[in-house]
Amino acid sequence: MSKIKNLTEVSNRIKKAVMDKESIIIYGDSDMDGIASTTILQEAIKNLGGEISLVMFPDRENDGYGINARALELLKGKAPALFITLDLGIGNVKEVDVANQYGFEVIIVDHHEILESIPNASIVIDPKQPGDTSKMTHLANVGITFKLAEEMLGDHFSETLRNSFLELAALATISDMVPQIEDNKMFIEKGLRSLADTFRPGLKVFIDIFGKGEVAAGEYFKIIQALNAAESVNFMNEAFLLLVNPSPKECRDIADRLLGKVHHKQQVIQSIVEEITRRMAKNLDQPIIFEGDPAWKLTLAGPVASIIAQRSEKPTFIYKKMDSESCGSVRSLKENQNSVDAMRSCADILITYGGHPKASGFRVANKNLAKFKERLVKHFSKT
User: Fold this and answer.
1) What is the residue range of 342's domain?
2) What is the pLDDT of residue 216?
3) d(Cα 169, Cα 237) in Å, to the nearest integer?
4) pLDDT of residue 62
5) pTM, whole model, 2 decimals?
6) Which regions in the chain score pLDDT beneath 50?
7) Rounded to an integer, what distance in angstroms lies between the CA atom of residue 110 and that of residue 132?
């Protein structure tokens, strides 16, 4: 099996940046996959003797997904720097052009579907891009980042560090709901085995809370729930701060907060699901579920869409309606209902969109909401 396209090139470029003491910025997605990927890459770079100038995660509630204008405005004065995106970026054609104009050298490491064109980054890793013969399209972004760390560290990749990265890869691979096959299966099996005796204080705290036997028996889902309960505020994420924190006491405080958020989050999700179920009863003949509300949190759109899609067996679009735009998450569980293809047919009226066929997201002007729904109904009526 061939190597992921551009993996060696990115590894060499990062090692050069470390050697030349260049400024390095990591911009990761705010979910478990993006957070674990960011943790692995930062620690791999530190093990090479490098430093990270800045780590950022988008505030999905205020800025949506991906690289956004507010982030670029904040970063404007920090060029020149190597700007590395993890678990996002492949859909940010315009934003990468702006980053280039500001003097950044952009590297994209992503695993989402390629849209109309690939951004004009210096180097792009995405197993779904043309010319990639690795057949690694099943990997979550954390799997790609693990392979990048392996390439970067070579003979200096100690067993302890490998196991620590495998633990993160296991949790993020499960969380991202990618197929549990080939390397993904290996990440999960080896990572969960190592998790019981983890050295990472931010994970060990959960072993102490739930118990080693319980985690091995499946309680690791509660760890994933807690890490996913974190939100990104001012471009920093609490789950990332937990994973990189060396202090057991501080880790316990953060973990307790996140577990409290899980309980509240589940209550709010249940309330939104009940509201959507009432609305659905009036539109039983529709081939899709398309619902939004100004009061719903964007960070809950994905979990809500997952529940509704499973119950209805229909492509589900759940969004937060803001002043002039709406931003949402999509879940489409059947093989013949590719959500990215559906939105590709609406690209001319969408601000941004992208993701996986079964889990994706979008941003649309409110004036185009009705037209967007109408086109989706037409698209899925055919499938």
Assistant:
1) 283-382
2) 78
3) 18
4) 75
5) 0.90
6) none
7) 13
Residue showing tokens 């690791």: 220
The residues facing 104 across adjacent strands are 81
- 8 Å CB contact between 298 and 330: no
The three state secondary structure string of 153-201 is: HHHHCCHHHHHHHHHHHHHHHHHCCCCCCHHHHHHHHHHHHHHCCCCCH
Beta strands in the chain (DSSP E): 24-28, 54-56, 81-86, 104-109, 123-125, 232-233, 236-237, 289-293, 316-321, 325-331, 350-355, 359-365
Question: What's the length of the chain?
Answer: 383
Choose the final residue of a domain: 199, 233, 267: 233
Torsional sign, CA 304, 306, 307, 308 = positive
What tokens does 261 get? 């958020």
Q: Based on the structure, what is the number of domains in the chain?
A: 2
CATH number of the domain that residue 128 is part of: 3.90.1640.30
**Do 219 and 308 lie in a common domain?**
no
CA angle at 128 for the pair 306 and 116, rounded to the nearest 5°: 85
Measuring CA to CA, which residue among 284, 320, 283 is closest to residue 304?
320
